[in-house]
Amino acid sequence: MKYQYSILNAEMPGKEDVLELTPNRATKEIIQHLDKLGIETFLDRFEAQQPQCGFGLRGLCCRMCQWGPCRISSKNPRGICGKDLNTMVIGNILRALVAGLAAHGRHAHECIMAVIAAAEGKANIKLVGEQRVWELAEKFGLDTEGKEFLQVAKEVALVLMDDLSRMFDTPIRMLEAYAPEERKEVWAKLGILPRSASYEVMEALHMTTLGS
Question: Which CATH architecture is the domain 100-207 placed in?
Answer without folding.
Answer: Up-down Bundle (1.20)
